[in-house]
Design brief:
By secondary structure, this protein is mainly alpha-helical. The protein folds into four domains: 256 residues, Lysozyme (Orthogonal Bundle); 70 residues, no CATH class; 81 residues, Membrane-bound Lytic Murein Transglycosylase D, Chain A (Roll), CATH 3.10.350; 50 residues, LysM domain (Membrane-bound Lytic Murein Transglycosylase D, Chain A). Helix content is 44%, strand content 11%. The strands form six sheets. The chain has a two-stranded antiparallel sheet. α3 runs parallel beside α5, α3 packs parallel to α13 and α5 runs parallel beside α13. The protein is globular. The chain starts with a helix and ends with a strand.
């Protein structure tokens, strides 16, 4: 970074001026985060990746860190920071990372850097944005926040869905760097058209459109950026130095790879598949599969979805896929989402008494009709709200007792109301458009051979039973046969009390 110091007021001032325009990156939709808090989370995220595959594998993306020539003149650089103390604290912390932490941070940044810069250039956006994911997530693919943001760009559920990403129970494309980058770029461009100002568009990406509009109104007509920042929260001013420190650190510490990254290729799976099934047949670890396919947080690839593999083993996958699919264990698909029990909200109404005409300022109330198989966790994820809120809004004290056909009140932001109001209808249309599997009651099922000596048994599903558990109770019966005999496409959809037909030899 010595070249930046020597070239005042050129490169260094240029970077400072550009970074100054990115001040508001601190709040990212959060209630209150000052620079110190953000710096702590950044360092924690770096440390957490040290033991994470593949960054702890010396054979992966081999190379070395190259530093700028000469000693860093911190005093000369920090004079351009808006908050000099914060800049010095963060920059010094990054420079003092141990060798493993420093290599992980720099290596992961430069692994994705060329692609991110390329997409920013295509969209005619400033290449200074290349540092944004490093600041927000330390390039941690699995980075999530309690504010329901995810991935290296820390996209919200709403930002992801409206920019073409799939975010559902099994797939979260916000965790896929390439797809998330495309979504982030689209969001920046839409905001540019809305605000007719590049820097305000960036603020809207971070804070949300409403927050930026309010600050613009407070700044008055024909306001300058200085006017805007003068009324911005103090946290924004503190954060600029953190952002400058990260950008300066990554300019001063470049990663030079000895070899090009391993080539990959995509292919589709015919059936729902777990990473464990692939790893059991092909020479690739589950950890490597998770790295290449972070969009599947539960290691489950939905039917007809794409999977990324090292190019050299794609042909092996196609040749051995029958063995992969046959190695199924239905217990792999039982845990789909973490369930969290919330305590009852304080000062609520009496148990069993419906919530009366609850209204929330800035929110629109929509009605959701509960379907068979629904759970509050999945509903909350679809509508980007908390389970605790659903329970409070609807006076639910036991989430296991929600009933199909009943309605739930869900409160969403006014500006997003149209999208969420039509969400249930959109999902219903998708389900109807799927090819229906006919239900056969006779023993002569198409494509299924049933020995003449087989005895037809009716099994009533009990609590805790899956097709795998049930199959173990009958000789010669497999989970796949149970699903075929009963025309069930998803093993997770069997219910307690359901009657299943089983043919026992």
């Amino acid at each position: 970074m010595k070249r930046l110091v020597q070239n005042k007021p050129g490169s260094l001032i240029g970077i400072f001026v550009v970074l100054l325009l990115f001040v508001p990156l601190v709040n990212w939709g959060q209630d209150s985060i000052n620079g110190e808090d953000f710096q702590y989370r950044l360092l924690q995220s770096i440390q957490n990746q040290v033991s994470t595959y593949p960054w702890n594998d010396a054979s992966f993306f081999p190379g070395k860190i190259e530093n700028a020539d000469g000693e860093q003149e911190l005093d000369e650089v920090k004079e351009y920071a808006l908050n000099q103390h914060q800049f010095e604290t963060c920059f010094t912390s990054l420079m003092n990372l141990n060798s493993a932490e420093k290599e992980v941070f720099v290596k992961s940044f430069y692994y994705y850097n060329s692609f991110i810069k390329q997409e920013l250039k295509k969209a005619d956006l400033s290449d200074e944005l290349q540092y944004l994911p490093a600041v927000l997530s330390a390039m941690n693919l699995q980075s999530t926040s309690k504010y329901k943001r995810a991935g290296v760009w820390q996209l919200s559920h709403f930002q992801g869905v409206l920019n073409g990403l799939t975010v559902d129970k099994l797939v979260d494309e916000r965790l896929d760097v390439e797809k998330a980058t495309h979504a982030a770029v689209r969001e920046f461009k839409k905001n540019e058209r809305l605000f007719d100002h590049t820097k305000l568009a960036l603020l809207a990406f971070v804070f949300g459109k409403t927050e930026v509009k309010n600050l613009c109104l407070r700044a008055g007509e024909d306001f300058s950026l200085n006017d805007f920042f003068a009324i911005a929260p103090d946290e924004m001013v503190d954060f600029i130095s953190t952002y400058q420190a990260v950008a300066g650190f990554l300019e001063d510490n470049k990663y030079v790879s000895s070899y090009e990254p391993q080539k990959t290729a995509e292919t589709k799976v015919r059936f729902q598949t777990h990473f464990d099934q692939i790893s059991a047949v092909l020479p690739i670890s589950v950890e490597h599969l998770r790295f290449l396919n972070p969009q599947y947080p539960y290691s489950i690839i939905p039917e007809q979805a794409s999977i990324t593999l090292p190019e050299k083993i794609k042909q092996d996958f196609l040749f051995l896929q029958d063995s992969i699919y046959n190695g199924v264990d239905s217990t792999l698909f039982e845990v789909v989402a973490q369930k969290i029990e919330y305590p009852p909200a304080p000062n609520r109404q009496y148990v069993g008494e419906p919530v009366k005409d609850l209204q929330i300022e800035g929110k629109t109330k929509i009605k959701y009709t509960i379907k068979s198989g629904d759970v509050l966790g999945f509903i909350a994820e679809d509508y980007d709200v908390r389970v605790a809120d659903l329970k409070y809004w609807n006076n639910i004290y036991n989430e296991r007792k929600i009933q199909a056909g009943k309605t739930l009140d869900i409160f969403v932001d006014n500006e997003n109301a149209d999208y969420y109001s039509g969400l249930q209808q959109q999902k219903a249309k998708k389900e109807v458009s799927k090819t229906a599997v006919p239900y056969f009651t006779s023993a002569a099922l198409p494509g299924i051979s049933i020995p003449e000596s087989a005895t037809k048994v009716e099994h009533v599903v009990k609590s805790g039973e899956s097709p795998y558990v049930i199959a173990k109770k009958y000789d010669g019966v497999t989970p796949e046969k149970i699903l075929e005999w009963n025309s069930i496409s998803d093993a997770r959809k069997i219910q307690i009390g359901q009657k299943l037909i089983i043919y026992v030899q």
